[in-house]
Design brief:
10 helices, 12 strands, 44% helix, single chain, alpha/beta, five-stranded parallel β-sheet
Length: 260
């Protein structure tokens, strides 16, 4: 495949646009990023002055710099250079627009991509995200009332930092492979039919009941019992292999507390 040529004027416009972005955002560049920008800009200018062809690949660095600049500050502190950012699994497939949208909401680009995934997989438009979720800062994502995604089989993941004020209904989400660390549910969590789950996060917190079903992975049921034992689940475990399991755990826990 022949590399795509860029006209000299178009190349200069892209360089000018990058300069405007840097001035507008007023982000403190690290020395590594400054050197990265300087070296690539110089290389493009030298080509243009020598009358040589400029290709799209010569200008790919512009998009990478924009992405770095648009990232939340904590990620810019984490990735001191563009090269570090590019090599990171966390930043795979992240565009400058994704970084910008994430920064506006004080979340990471990965969290933003996960929210986009949930919206698309459940047949919602992008605007649904800001109607459903709140972003108080510090990477937190909140839903004030219920979040109902039942039978949305294309949903495979949820964003980290998520807390749901009332019920989280994931019944029949067979494509869901994991729950995010730190997930908090204010009322009940319904995982019945979530056959793709292989485990539950140790940091899961549920103020109400947990709904399971017989066809779930055995490790999910074991993890639920451990969470109940540690009082991370305040209500009952319902619909698992034995619906009396959680009450039995409670009785044992109370007996041990009495014997202390």
């Amino acid at each position: 495949m022949t590399p795509e040529l860029t006209k000299p004027q178009a190349a200069l416009e892209q360089l000018s646009d990058l300069n405007q972005t840097l001035e507008k955002e007023k982000v403190q560049l690290t020395s590594e990023v400054e050197n990265y920008v300087r070296e690539h800009v110089r290389a493009v200018h030298e080509k243009l002055q020598a009358g040589q062809d400029v290709y799209e690949r010569d200008l790919e660095f512009i998009a990478k710099v924009r992405t770095w600049v648009m990232m939340p500050q904590e990620l810019r502190e984490k990735y001191k250079s563009v090269e570090e950012m590019v090599k990171s699994d966390e930043m795979n497939d992240v565009t400058s627009l994704d970084a910008y949208e994430a920064n506006k909401r004080h979340i990471s680009p990965k969290q933003w991509l996960d929210l986009l995934h949930v919206a698309e997989a459940s047949g919602k438009k992008k605007e649904w995200i800001d109607k459903m979720f709140q972003f108080p800062g510090g990477g937190k994502i909140q839903v004030e009332e219920d979040l109902v995604l039942h039978n949305h089989v294309k949903v495979t993941r949820l964003p980290e930092g998520l807390s749901v004020g009332r019920d989280l209904v994931l019944r029949g989400c067979t494509g869901l492979t994991e729950l995010p660390e730190g997930l908090k549910v204010g009322s009940y969590l319904n995982l019945a039919g979530c056959t793709g789950l292989t485990k539950l996060p140790k940091s899961l917190s549920i103020d109400g009941h947990l709904w399971l079903s017989e066809n779930l992975n055995e490790q999910v049921k074991k993890d639920a019992s451990k969470l109940k034992w540690k009082r991370k689940i305040k209500g009952e475990i319902i619909g698992g292999p034995k619906t009396f399991l959680s009450s039995t755990v409670n009785k044992i826990h109370n007996l041990l507390s009495f014997l202390k």
